[in-house]
């Protein structure tokens, strides 16, 4: 199974991405950064397993580019890599950490889902929803994720088919009048009734102290996560 994890990143006061890279393992990965400042990633430029893509900011004329627009633009570029070249795409926010042995569990679950759903499903590696307890965790290692409650894209796997369909949806949006991209994805999932699942225990934990949309200063965390 060929999947290159893609990290959606930007410079932060606290660059959580260092902890992410420390826990993801010695694998090939890609970091997509919108804007000119990639200096916080200089320590990785000599690492031949890490590809750093610097994406110009969205061109919206003389209007000021909002944080919302930049995040949408960055995520769209993360989605647009390796279409049909790999077995789907795994996109990560840059403020998460991984559990030990995550990649073996991840590939096993993807194989199970493909057997049943083919190329029409998505898998989240994270949720803060109380879907089960330690005593009621599923034997298969994943649960259905209620799409009407879907929010946050801390770690998402999209098959090739879903990847292309979401890119098409993104292309219909006026970049000057954008809304949070996780809500755009949620609308797509609801409209198309896409089977949506989450790994339990979660394979990643969210460590960012502020939500992407500045809605809260609290850390949104997975209830069940085993380091």
Question: What is the second-level CATH architecture?
Answer: Alpha-Beta Complex
Helix content: 25-40%
CATH class group = Alpha Beta
What is the chain-wise order of helices and strands? Answer: EHEEHEEHEEEHHEE
- The secondary-structure class comes to alpha/beta
The CATH homologous superfamily: Spore Coat Polysaccharide Biosynthesis Protein SpsA, Chain A
Uncertain segments? 211-216
Mean pLDDT: 87
Strand order of the largest sheet: 3-2-1-4-8-6-9-7
Gross geometry: globular
For the biggest sheet, the summary is: 8 strands, mixed
Work out the strand percent. 15-25%
Describe this structure in words.
This protein is an alpha/beta fold and about 230 residues long. The protein has one domain: Spore Coat Polysaccharide Biosynthesis Protein SpsA, Chain A (Alpha-Beta Complex). About 25% of the residues lie in helices and about 20% in strands. It is built from 5 helices and 10 strands; from the N terminus they run E-H-E-E-H-E-E-H-E-E-E-H-H-E-E. The strands form 2 sheets. The chain has an 8-stranded mixed sheet with strand order 3-2-1-4-8-6-9-7, with helices on both faces. It has a two-stranded antiparallel sheet with strand order 5-10. The chain is globular and about 45 Å long. Residues about 210-215 have low confidence and may be disordered.
């Amino acid at each position: 199974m060929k999947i290159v994890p893609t990290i959606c990143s930007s410079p932060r006061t606290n660059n959580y991405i260092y902890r992410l890279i420390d826990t993801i393992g010695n694998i090939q990965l890609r970091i997509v950064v919108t804007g000119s400042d990639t200096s916080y990633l200089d320590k990785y430029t000599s690492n031949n397993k890490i590809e750093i893509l610097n994406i110009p900011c969205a061109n919206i004329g003389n209007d000021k580019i909002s944080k919302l627009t930049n995040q949408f633009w960055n995520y769209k570029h993360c989605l647009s890599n390796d279409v049909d070249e790999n077995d789907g795409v795994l996109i990560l926010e840059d403020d998460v950490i991984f559990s030990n042995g995550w990649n073996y569990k991840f590939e096993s679950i993807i194989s199970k889902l493909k057997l049943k759903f083919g190329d029409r499903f998505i898998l989240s590696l994270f949720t803060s929803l109380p879907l089960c307890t330690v005593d009621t965790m599923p034997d298969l290692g994943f649960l259905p994720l209620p799409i009407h409650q879907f929010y946050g894209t801390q770690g998402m796997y999209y098959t090739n088919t879903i990847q292309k369909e979401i890119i098409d949806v993104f292309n219909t949006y006026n970049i000057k009048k954008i809304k949070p991209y996780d809500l755009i994805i949620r609308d797509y999932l609801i409209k198309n009734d896409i089977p949506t699942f989450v790994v339990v225990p979660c394979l990643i934990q969210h460590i960012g102290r502020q939500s992407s949309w500045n809605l809260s200063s609290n850390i949104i965390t997975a209830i069940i996560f085993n380091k």
